[in-house]
# Entry
Amino acid sequence: MSTTVEDRYKTTIGLETHVELSTSSKMFCGCEVGFAGEPNTRTCPVCLGMPGSLPVANATAIEYTLRIALALNCTIAPRSLFHRKNYFYPDMPKNYQISQYDYPVGSQGFLEISGDFGTKRVGINRVHLEEDTGKSIHVGGSGRIADSDYSLEDFNRAGTPLVEIVSEPDIGSAEEARAYVTELRALLESLGVSDVRMEEGSMRVDANVSVALQGAEEFGAKVEVKNMNSIRSVGRALEFEEKRQRDALANGETLVQETRHFDEKTSTTSSLRTKEFAFDYRYFPEPDLVPFQPDPEWVESIRDALPETPAARRERFATTYGLSDYDVGVLTSSVATSDWFEAAATVYAGEPKRVANWISADLFGLLNEAGIELAQAKITPAQLAGLVQLVDDGTISGKQAKTVLAQMFASGSDAQDVVADLGLQQVSDESALEAAVDEVIAENEDAAAKVRAGQLNTIGFLVGQVMKKTKGRANPGIVNDLLKRKLG
Amino acid sequence: MPDLHWTGARELARMIEGGDVTAEEIAAAFVARSEAVEPSLHAYLHPTFDEAIDDARAADRRRAAGEARSAFDGVPVAYKDIFCTRAAPTTSGSKILDGFRPPYDATVVARCGAAGLAMLGKLNMDEFAMGSSTENSGFGPTKNPWDLERVPGGSSGGSTALVAAGGTPWAWGTDTGGSVRQPASLCGLVGVKPTYGMVSRYGIVAFASSLDQAGPVTRKVEDAAALLQLAAGHDPYDSTSIPRDVPDLVSGIDGGIDGMRVGIVREFQGAEGTQPGVAQRVEEAYARLEKLGARLEEISLPSFEHGISAYYLVAPAEASSNLARYDGVRYGFRASGAPDIVSMMSRTRDEGFGDEVKRRVMLGTYALAAGYYDAYYGKAQKVRTLITRDLERAYEQVDLIVSPTSPTTAFRLGERTSDPLAMYLSDIFTVPVNMAGNAAISVPCGTSPDDGLPVGLQIIARSLDEQTMFRAAYAFEQDLGWIDSAEGRPSL
# Structure
């Protein structure tokens, strides 16, 4: 039996994740952070790099960075420094970026991921804080700077606090990479430090991928992959890259160290530049800022106040609420969803599992149809709990509840009100149903005779007739009982 | 009444207070004097004379209404063109910032404005404060009012030339390696380099961030203390400014120096390149301090000999990064006709920067390059630590340290432009002070018997001990009596 290409090669992936922090002001000035606004309106002398301007570090950004580093189980540096990273680019106002170098806020942490590959720890090499650049729009040509007619610069984003999270090269496949990004994104979201929207660039992932023969002592040539704008893209780009490198090696080709660009449309990567002209960033300590030494008590208070991690929440949902793996997955997909579910489960008197089913199946169906997020929906958790309660106490049937939910979703009304408006209350009062049952028996003598003769399966037909007569409002269980008694 | 333009700022404030003169009359006198001397000196880059007179007039109205902003409301002032000002362009002496008008005031300018000072204009300087003669200005050199064939020193040469000529009662300069003290010495003035962090750097075009510090240029010691008092103190916009209250620098200035211990640096005695006339005047100054009650002691600062070499790694390294922003993209000069962004940036910098700036940007880029960092920038920072330790050790023994400010008097225009190393040695006594961050002042000690040009005495204090520094300088100045004599004024 011959070994497959997959078995003969080992893939090594390290991920660098940049996260824009959702602080109210920028990293080193008082300008507002945000996407909206006319170009270059959220700027000041500091974030435009004007002569004589000086940076002042944003304490909230440092706190958020500590939160991230602690949640990733990092060691917190007792003394941390900003460095200047020097290189020329028109979207960088000072032509250097204030970043961190050998004294990052956090280092030596880990993130636990799980999937079909099992559970594993991915090491976190470092968590550091820096500032974002502006945005270039290259007009004409291919849209890249080299062949454009001219470029426009928007510095609204310049100076936004940016945290860089560098993993160790512990990731062994595209699937693990996807799991890492998914878990990291959920963790960052739970910390409330970023919008973590990959499509909008508030979370950006670059990968270093190398493939080598199993058992080889050295890593293969390191290939950096950029422009992966969703978790799905991360998976597709790395699958492509893993295969490309394996195939190349299998064909006896030599891989070169380079940077490659992922194309969303074709799901392929192409070479952007080789590392032959490596940048020398001339790092040196930022003389405009003083080193910061976070007070250990402050660090501990941040650690104590860390919210539940997504992993812990998943565990709790499964054990406390007895939810299925599927429901846990859906209901912990975002903090907002988890909180929504828990709010509904709290006011609901029955088994939380019931509410969970209604959310993961029916409500999510409506959300997908409408193309909106749970947070934007008109229906509240208490309203959903009220609806499930009406089903439980027999006021409406499960089938009717779906209609009611759609109405509630559209209007934001309470379940009771929708049921009243549609005249859907189930009739369970025997005296109210007796007339209808008698009429149906009178109108269907043959069927009634069969039931009397012991053909009990015909009773279903008679129940159906009663339902028809009551426009579906009769409680079928009660009708069934009444028929049995009268024909018994 | 004496000539207003030879009157110090504190004295002018007293005259206004006494009703002897209005701020408008004072401003008019300094404008007239500035206009008279400017053709010979070229001290100004952007005069704002009309605005200064308007501001002085407004100050008179405020005073009449009992709403004076300070004792100095309406007194004129001028700034080295390195301070950002909304009211005038700011070039830092460079063509690359030609036409740049900042939308903000430096903290120093804002605080002086809040005290009511009326700005006469912006003054010439070596490009980005890199130089010791003001010949590196992108807009032509400034002349020394003591001898128009000679340089005023630098980089704050516009400030010292104008104060020495009576064009302004006081001015602001900046000192990165001696750029206030050395030109003050060459122009017969008082020049202060405060403790690093005493004065906000916000809005001061950066040369070398860890060394830059703004300082007053005045004729009288008391005025230097008063001007520093107006602007000093913590600024939330400068993370390196010291978060503590500034003591009263003026009121105890006449406390004398009886019993003070004053250190004379063994390694500076007979230092190479020190002119005999300079050495003589400085020796006389030491004797005068002793006569006034100070106890002279010899001290050793062995690391000081490495000061210049270490400085010429640290300062250019920081400058290479600080000056990267001048690329033609957002403001200032942009070279025309470049086919792409890379050539636009490099042409802008090629055409916009002068030779000395390019030399230092290249030096600094090299010093920070991967593989050289430890050998150059890293080692220079270690030397800096040694200098600081040497000083700390010395201050266990003495209260102040004295030395010449500059090894020579004012040199001739063009004399050192082709020899950068000779130019760099102008700052041999001043540079180590910036490396350590201490406070220092240059105070005139008469003219050299060699050439009749002014000589300066440097008094170096502990960090944040400006009070002792001013007391010593004041005692010396009062006893010498030179600045108030006819000898203390150039014949221009």
